[in-house]
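Board notes (copied after class):
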Amino acid sequence: MTEAESPAGRKTSLSRWRQTACDFADQVKAQRRQRPMTAWALAEQCQLSLRIVEDLDEGYPVEQRAIEVVCRNLDLPVPQLAGNPVHTLALVVRQRREQARLKQYQLATLSGIAAKTIKEIERGYHWPTPETCAALLSVTALQLQPQDIAEFVSDPAAAAVDPLVALLGGA
């Protein structure tokens, strides 16, 4: 088990990403206060939805392209928030859930995961357990693929066939 695969490595990776996202959110808010500019005005100027700007303000995961547009408009350096497995999974789960026209509580019911856990995953607050990943993978409406959860389970291909096998590490 590498350092990144250990629980401590996961927590460090997650906390590093969260800290970078929160620092960036603070920079965006500071630049908006300095100008003065509302979230709505920034969204309009960047041609983004208000929700994306509000998500940035909270330090939630957003597409790297949106970060780049905001940075260009506010003259900020572009942080590299994409690439972290928690960030990537958060975006994929939220996008797929919205494409399937499911509310968080509906996804929670379908997957057998607490609605709070779904919310935390989508906000990038939670390093999901293999059980959580297997449960998400079992929801066909999400159209998740084994590679979407590969960072979080020992055998993602087995999770697609039998979530219990993935949880037991291919045993």
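Comment from the instructor: The chain is about 60% helix and 0% strand. The two ends are 17 Å apart (CA to CA).
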